[in-house]
Design brief:
The chain has about 90 residues and is α+β, with helices and mostly antiparallel strands. Helix content is about 40%, strand content about 25%. A four-stranded antiparallel β-sheet has the order 2-3-1-4, covered by helices on one side. Strand 2 and strand 3 form a beta hairpin. The radius of gyration is 14 Å and the shape is flat.
């Protein structure tokens, strides 16, 4: 097993929003920034009850928030760890 140095690891942020349509989100992101940037941002969506947590690369968080505002979705909060996001929602 290879251990990566800290500067090569992907630093992620977690954005808590109400449920969003991922297909529409993906289409809008690709229209504005392109396929290459979409895959560089490493976007993952975790659905929990009525909320969604968007896991994204730290460098592209401003672009994600831009697309969310275009769709009329306001981010509730941004977290550094998934654990803190789940604690905010009172999920163990």
């Amino acid at each position: 097993m290879v251990i990566l140095p800290k500067n090569l690891k992907i630093k992620r942020r977690y954005i808590l929003v109400n449920n969003i349509d991922f297909e529409r989100f993906k289409r809008d992101y690709i229209d504005f920034f392109g396929y290459l940037d979409f895959y560089k941002s490493n976007i993952e969506i975790i659905k929990i009850n009525d909320f969604s947590i968007i896991s994204v690369n730290k460098k592209n968080i401003d672009r994600i928030i831009f697309i969310l505002y275009l769709q009329g979705v306001k981010p509730i909060k941004i977290f550094k760890t998934i654990k803190s996001a789940k604690q905010f929602l009172n999920i163990s």
